Design the sequence.
């Protein structure tokens, strides 16, 4: 029996043109879109323009998280420079099994601190996004502040919570399932 068949694998890789339809489908899903700063449906053309512009920049890393070779999430690191403070954004597939978020955070932070050699990853979450707030805290982030009434969602203002994780605080196995 081939034992390697039983090994579960987490992988982070660069997003390519082949991922465009899948990522747009995730991004437009109500469960993802409603927690983004821009929450309109994104058409194919706009999505392609965003991808070409962003993926062509050395300061952005657009990534796909895979578990057992199945794409389950998207991660973006922006403002990436060596020893820099970069921002991240992310979402899991609306169909992702329980635990996908934790696995995504573990793989993405390994990429950030080991490959990109970042000094710090910072993230933001709308105050009503409980999943993202828990996700950041579970991954070892500290809450660093609240931007009051920072975002207008079309009907009301919302607070934005700021999170940060320093390279020296990062624990590679944080989020172990
Ligand atoms: C934010 C996001 C990535 C977080 O992922 P997630 O839902 O926490 O992912 P998980 O499946 O790992 O965790 C879900 C819950 O299951 C729990 N869980 C995970 N694996 C588990 C397991 N094996 N057994 C039991 N419970 C488990 C987690 O602890 C969490 O529970 P909690 O809510 O009590 O903390 C995801 O919700 C998402 O994509 N949301 C929409 C987009 C978004 O908001 N993006 C971020 C913008 S700032």
Sequence:
């Amino acid at each position: 029996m081939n034992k390697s068949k039983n090994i579960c694998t987490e992988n982070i890789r660069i997003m390519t043109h082949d991922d465009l339809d899948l990522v747009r489908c995730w991004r437009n899903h109500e469960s993802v879109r409603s927690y983004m700063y821009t929450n309109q449906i994104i058409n194919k053309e706009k999505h392609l323009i965003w991808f070409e512009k962003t993926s062509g920049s050395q300061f952005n890393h657009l990534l796909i998280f895979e578990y057992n070779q199945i794409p389950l999430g998207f991660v973006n690191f922006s403002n990436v420079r060596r020893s820099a403070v970069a921002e991240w954004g992310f979402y899991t597939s609306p169909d992702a099994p329980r635990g996908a978020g934790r696995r995504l955070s573990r793989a993405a932070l390994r990429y950030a601190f080991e490959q990109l050699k970042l000094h710090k990853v910072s993230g933001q979450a709308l105050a009503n996004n409980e999943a993202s707030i828990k996700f950041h805290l579970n991954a070892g982030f500290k809450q660093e502040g609240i931007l009051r009434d920072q975002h207008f969602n079309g009907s009301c203002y919302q607070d934005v919570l700021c999170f940060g994780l320093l390279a020296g605080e990062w624990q590679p196995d944080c989020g172990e399932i």
Observations:
- The longest helix spans residues 100-115.
- The helical segments are 20-28, 30-33, 44-55, 100-115, 130-138.
- The chain has a mean pLDDT of 93.
